[in-house]
Amino acid sequence: MLGILGLGWYLPKTELDNDFLHKEVGLEKDQDWIESRLGIERRYSVLSKEYILKTKNADPSQAITHARANGETPVTMGLAAARMAIKQAGIRPEQIGWVVANSDTPFDFVPMTASLIARELGVGTGPHCDMNSACSSFARHMKGLADTQADNLPEFILCVQSSCYTTRTDYRSNCIDGYIMGDGAAAQLVSAKHAGLLTAEPMIFDSKPSEASEIVSDACGHFTQNGAAVRKFSIRKTCEMFEEIAERKGLYADKVYTITHQANAVMQESILGHLNLPPERHLSNVREQGNIASAGCPSVLAQNIHRLHKGDQIVYAVLGAGLAWGGGYMEVQ
């Protein structure tokens, strides 16, 4: 069992709404199509609007250079989210013994994201490492910590998820990924030795390598995915995870809050419909900030913790490239 003592999140400064993408950038699909297929109204980018208009992001390697000049990277976003989590936890950065990070769209492959974040925070030596499973990285981080013998864990651990998918997004007119993907970061200050805002019981993490090619983002190319296949797999696997966790914990649908991967709102509605889950107890932010990959689910948690009450139960289930999936149970303290 883990304690989550602090939560943080961050979105970059450039807002991309549907009108901008359709009327100015020239993406073909209109508002009616977006609402019926995605349910996303806006997303945020480390790129400037001017850059997207001028280049359509034809060359992702140049997008990285532009984002650096714009002052926003996976590391700067992760740092902002981490500082929020650390402040909420009420500890000092030098008390952190382990930084675990992911960025499936890194600007720097070496050194790793965790080391760069630890350095900027002033964290000392430790087994800092990147642990990346794309959109399911939050579940990977939680399960990895839970599977480690508690005596081997430092007192405080910082987990960070940060993604800059707009730097790998194709903004040509016939591509729909521009309507889906956004950038952002999330962070959690975790301990196996101290109680916190939440207790977390990570329960599932698995992957299916035979389907690894369904979602691809290479070192310098555009992000691609087999959207129909991934959607079908995601809905089925998320439903299976919710059912498994509910059975193992003896939970009832009308008594728990749910969080899924923030792929799009229409997929979430489909999952709720399949399981007859109450929409008012489903926590989501994808309409307001798009799919920010690994940071989606944990940013929902960070943005909603203030309105939850002691004893509230949460079931989370996420899925990402690999194809990898994971989930678990949380309870507000």
CATH topology (level 3) name of the largest domain: Peroxisomal Thiolase, Chain A, domain 1
Biggest sheet, open or closed, and with what strands and sense? 9 strands, mixed
Alpha-carbon distance between the termini? 13 Å
Number of strands: 13
Q: Let me know the CATH homologous superfamily of the largest domain.
A: Thiolase/Chalcone synthase
Judging by the overall fold, what is the CATH architecture of the largest domain?
Answer: 3-Layer(aba) Sandwich
Order of helices and strands: EEHHEHHHEHEHEHEEEEHEHHHEE
Mean pLDDT comes to 95
Strand portion, in percent? Answer: 15-25%
Q: Spans with pLDDT under 50 lasting ≥5 residues?
A: none
Helix and strand content put the structural class at alpha+beta
Percent in helix: 25-40%
- What's the arrangement of strands in the largest beta sheet? 5-4-6-7-1-8-13-12-11
| Level-1 CATH class name of the largest domain | Alpha Beta
The rough form would be described as: globular
How many discrete structural domains? 2
How many helices? The count is 12
Radius of gyration: 19 Å
Structural notes for this entry:
- By secondary structure, the chain is an alpha+beta fold.
- The chain is 35% helix and 23% strand.
- β9 (215-216) and β10 (224-225) form a beta hairpin.
- α5 crosses α6 and α9 (227-249) packs across α10 (265-275).
- The two termini are 13 Å apart.
Topology summary:
Layout: E1 2-10, E2 14-17, H1 18-25, H2 31-37, E3 42-45, H3 49-55, H4 60-69, H5 74-89, E4 98-102, H6 113-121, E5 129-130, H7 137-146, E6 157-164, H8 177-180, E7 183-191, E8 198-207, E9 215-216, E10 224-225, H9 227-249, E11 256-260, H10 265-275, H11 286-289, H12 296-304, E12 313-320, E13 324-332
Parallel strand pairs: 4-5, 4-6, 11-12
Antiparallel strand pairs: 1-7, 1-8, 2-3, 6-7, 8-13, 9-10, 12-13
